[in-house]
Write the structure tokens for this entry.
Amino acid sequence: MKHLLSLEALGKDEILAVLDLASKMKANRGKHDKLPLKGQCWALMFSKSSTRTRVSFEVGIRELGGDVFFLAADDIQLGRGEPIKDTARVMGRMCHGAVIRTFAQSDVEDFAEYSRIPTINALTDEEHPCQILTDLQTIVEKLGSFAGKVVTFIGDGACNVPNSWLWAASKLDFELRIAAPKDFQPSKELLARAFPGEQSGTYLVNKGGGRVLVTDDIEAATRGADVLYTDVWVSMGKEEEAEYRKARLARYQINSQLVSLAKPGAIVMHCLPAYRGLEISEETFEAHADTIFDEAENRLHAQKAVLWLLAEGR
């Protein structure tokens, strides 16, 4: 592995390698037999605010022996219009790797191309690969495996998190259901890229057994699910649409009534931050807080696995 730019670009074996190593990272925290980032200095370049992503990467890089510094948009010339390829060529001569959280997917890809150093997508408008690797790790911990399981995403189905869930389902053996109003569903173009030419009834399927259903019927999508998953309704950069989004998504809330339709023992997940009373009820959030905060912690372990594999792939 040379970069983590998207789940779309990762193969099944690479995903499984991250998950296997992530579990070892968690079990052996503080007892690593080597420090693959020793002597390295990594840059965190964030155009979007963050809590979990920044903390988990800063801690993870240091636990693997590296040093790290943080740059917000106003700290560098990108904030004043310098082309990403020029910034990349400078950073590539001084740093050993970069973690980028920004708006355009093309910025991350261009940075990787021109910097020629390991580059990690820590979130763009198009994908959030670190989050979904973390979520898969959490599902394995809680349910034993994701194989054959049903993951139901509820809410804004056209943002970066469900986009990355689509790519995971296109490569792995589980069922993904996306419940969202029609104007908040993944684009036909994305669905066609992720699941080209394969259909079974209302499902799109992949050759490995994974499949996806996109619907506006929240109850149908929830029945028998092993995992209920949600995210904020108003993503960064969408603040001007806040009232419209809240009105359109109002009935797509995970609450106790909805959880009762899922499989007994189903888990509820949220990538945080959570807005209780909107995408998830206060009662439901607190009832499943242990899983949600284990999921948050696993950002550290999954990302350390990615960092380790990138160090080995140099």
Q: What stands out?
A: The chain has a mean pLDDT of 95. Residues 289-313 form the longest helix (25 residues).
